[in-house]
HAD-superfamily hydrolase, subfamily IA, variant 3 (Trichodesmium erythraeum), 252 residues
Amino acid sequence: MIEQFTLIFDVDGTIADTERDGHRVAFNQAFAEAGLDWEWSVSLYGELLAISGGKERINFYISQYKPKLKSSIPLLELISNLHSSKTNYYRKLLSTGAIPLRPGIKRLLTEARNNKMRLAIATTSTITNVTALLENTLGKESISWFEIIAAGDIVPAKKPAPDIYYYVLEKMNIQSNNCIVFEDSHHGLQAALQTGLKTIVTVNNYTINQNFTGATLVLNHLGEPEKPFTILAGNALGRNYCDLKLIELLQD
Ligand code: XBP
Ligand code: MG
């Protein structure tokens, strides 16, 4: 069964801890370059993560926090300019190797590939950000490991809407009971659950206190043989790191 099985990965917070030291830093660099005195602190950014998507997040910040707007350019144009500048800064930051993969990600992807499993990505972030992260952590060829990289504005509504997961299922012609999702956030889990997908959540500092009701397992990370995970909710069936054996056991 495992050969026909698909692993679907969220990116930000799941494959790598990209938010605090990646996206947040790049947003601030874009604001400074545009001559804006906006500064998204670590805690403010935690609040802003309630809104998925970089453009949507800037828009929310402007409408809710009413920061000083320097220029008279139309709002949508300002947001679009800031976001493309942020994307450039983010990619530059990734190219320094500043953001590593989370524990267990490389091992699990390698094991899945060795067993000819199907791989997919479902993310809210921009496609170029995803490919930059993969290239800088797993090498250029890793982009082709994933049959589909569903990203950003490809669907009308971002997570917690289920659109991106429905998109993956449809494009890959797979059933929801033949895959498992890896997510890190409440929004991501909601999107996957609404699509009927079993989900393993690996929390991070921004998401640790969120509600993960409905997740198959909630872990601190995927673990490694020499670095076991901590189980926050669910039954890991005696396993202490996430490999294909655990994923197979979770299907029974
Ligand atoms: C993560 C996000 C993204 C990034 C910013 O979603 O919410 O918005 O913070 O990315 P996921 P962009 O965990 O589902 O990948 O600026 O490229 O939108
Ligand atoms: Mg995420």
Remarks:
- The beta strands are 6-9, 118-122, 148-150, 179-183, 198-202, 217-219, 231-234.
- The CA atoms of residues 218 and 232 lie 5 Å apart.
